Amino acid sequence: MVEHILDDESTEYLDVKTISGDTIPSYMEAIKSLEKAVIFAPSKSIYHKALSDIYAKLGMWAEAMENMNAPLPAEALSSKKAFEAATGYLKTAINLEPTNPDYHLALGQFYDMSNGNISLAEKELAKALAAYPVNAPLRYAVARQHLLMGRKGDALEQARILANIDDGYIIPESIEKKLMAERRTSYYLSRLSGSYLFKALEIAWRVSKDPEVVKGIAPDNPDAKEVLELFLEWKGIEG
């Protein structure tokens, strides 16, 4: 229902309308629709999370407008009110589903971006990891968040762990694998470069700009060595 309210009908596919004075009424309609859903199903965390997402988007848009000293449309919320609503709904979602790592990740990111409360942000990010410690996409998201906020030590530590829990780059030994490696096929290269190990190496490089630090987080196995060599090659770094 909400997807159709916010769908940009100028495109052939389902996407979300850009926030503007003209589309604010659609966003408020979507909020009302979700609030009705919450009334009928208050224990469904997904509705609270969806409300939080919409309020957060409205808050970021309002904040940008306020920073430019531009007037907000009559129906628009101030950034403060939108962020407060976003936080409240997200906390409710967490209370309903306390072990959902995505909710803790979202709240940690929100604390970082909206009020700069580093302590609260780090606690929520830690809770996200504790809920699903071996999930590579989650740990990568946390590492990126630390890097984005300038917490380089934390980013590097998460990259180190990520490099050790990811196994998506490992291709079972076979004649086909040997041929792919020798020919450096597009599939083989994309498998290595698309791995979370490769992403972990990228974070380590962005943190340190030191090849030895990058090498230091790579696992000690032949497949990881291939990923490391490809990374160094693409960066123009001598191994």
Report on this model:
The protein has 239 residues and is mostly helical. It has a domain at 152-239. The protein has helices spanning 2-5, 24-40, 45-67, 79-96, 101-114, 118-131, 136-148, 152-165, 175-183, 186-193, 196-208, 211-217, 222-235. The protein is elongated and about 65 Å long. The model has no long low-confidence stretch (mean pLDDT 93).
Provide the fold topology.
Elements: H1 2-5, H2 24-40, H3 45-67, H4 79-96, H5 101-114, H6 118-131, H7 136-148, H8 152-165, H9 175-183, H10 186-193, H11 196-208, H12 211-217, H13 222-235
Instruction: Give average pLDDT, whole number.
Output: 93
Shape, please?
A: elongated
How many DSSP E strands? 0
Number of helices: 13
Q: How is the quaternary structure best described?
A: single chain
The main β sheet shows up as: none
CA radius of gyration is 22 Å
Strand content: under 5%
- The secondary structure category is mainly alpha
Low-pLDDT regions: none
Termini separation (Å)?
A: 54 Å
Q: SSE string, helix = H, strand = E? A: HHHHHHHHHHHHH
Q: Name the helicity range.
A: over 70%
Task: Describe the structure concisely for a colleague.
The protein has about 240 residues and is mostly helical.
What labels would you give this structure?
239 residues; 13 helices; mainly alpha; 70% helix; elongated
